[in-house]
Amino acid sequence: MILWYALLVIAGYFIGSIPFGLYIARLNRHRYSNPTGRTANVAPVDLYRRSGSGQGRGRHALAGVAFLLELAKGFSPTFTGYLALGTPGALGGGSAALVGHTFPFFGRLRGSNSVAPLLGVLLAVYPVVVVILSMVWTASLAAWRYVSLAALVTAVVSPLALAALDAGGEYEDLVISSAVLWSLLTFFAHRENIRRLLSGREARINTPTNERGEARRERRVR
């Protein structure tokens, strides 16, 4: 049994380490700026921002593909763990995938801040909570127009929503503890965004990027 858990965790970590966003950005280098090198992965929102004017359909399509692939790399180890080892296996596979996403083996331990893998994990653990978190994310984005802030609010709400829904049955405490870990990983991945939010330099969702693929910073509103 321990061997199966170990194999699941190792597989989950390597699956979570796959930088799908970066691969899509490279395959479409004729339409998207290359990453600046500060991160070895690219979040779907970065793909959305990097597209030029007049290419709205293309940017939506490619950002959508990246989102689905990022979602799948969180979902697949979690759901496989559930089928093989039940709820503990799901939590182990999902946690390993999120650690791999945050500290990717294939990305020099520098991951992206996409929350799609987290949603994939939660989709396998307790699908109903994803509906709630999607509404929370959408409402937060509509209210403040900051993708990073919406992601952080979603991360905070996720363990609270799981607790309110009594997710996990006899493993409820383990599920909640794992969700707290996942939220902490999300906050770690967004540490630069948090600094920019506090200093008023974070870019909003509709802010375009410059030629280097960096979001143009908005002036701080005093």
UniProtKB/TrEMBL annotation:
Does this entry carry the keyword Cytoplasm? no
Which reaction equation describes what this protein catalyses? an acyl phosphate + sn-glycerol 3-phosphate = a 1-acyl-sn-glycero-3-phosphate + phosphate
- Give the GO terms filed under biological process for this record: phospholipid biosynthetic process
Coiled-coil boundaries = none
Residue intervals passing through the bilayer: 6-25, 82-103, 115-139, 146-165, 171-189
- So what EC number does this one have? 2.3.1.275
The family note in this entry says: Belongs to the PlsY family.
Q: What does this protein do?
A: Catalyzes the transfer of an acyl group from acyl-phosphate (acyl-PO(4)) to glycerol-3-phosphate (G3P) to form lysophosphatidic acid (LPA). This enzyme utilizes acyl-phosphate as fatty acyl donor, but not acyl-CoA or acyl-ACP.
A GO cellular-component term linked to this record:
plasma membrane
Q: Is Lipid biosynthesis tagged as a keyword?
A: yes
**InterPro entries, per this entry?**
G3P_acylTferase_PlsY (IPR003811)
Species of origin reads uncultured Rubrobacteraceae bacterium
Q: How does it sit in the membrane?
A: Multi-pass membrane protein
Keywords (A to Z) from UniProt: Acyltransferase, Cell membrane, Lipid biosynthesis, Lipid metabolism, Membrane, Phospholipid biosynthesis, Phospholipid metabolism, Transferase, Transmembrane, Transmembrane helix
Please give the pathway this protein is involved in. Answer: Lipid metabolism; phospholipid metabolism
Oligomeric state and partners? Probably interacts with PlsX.
Q: What is its main location?
A: membrane
The subcellular location is:
Cell membrane
One GO MF annotation is: acyl-phosphate glycerol-3-phosphate acyltransferase activity
Query: What is the protein name for this chain?
Result: Glycerol-3-phosphate acyltransferase
What would be the name of the gene that encodes this protein? plsY
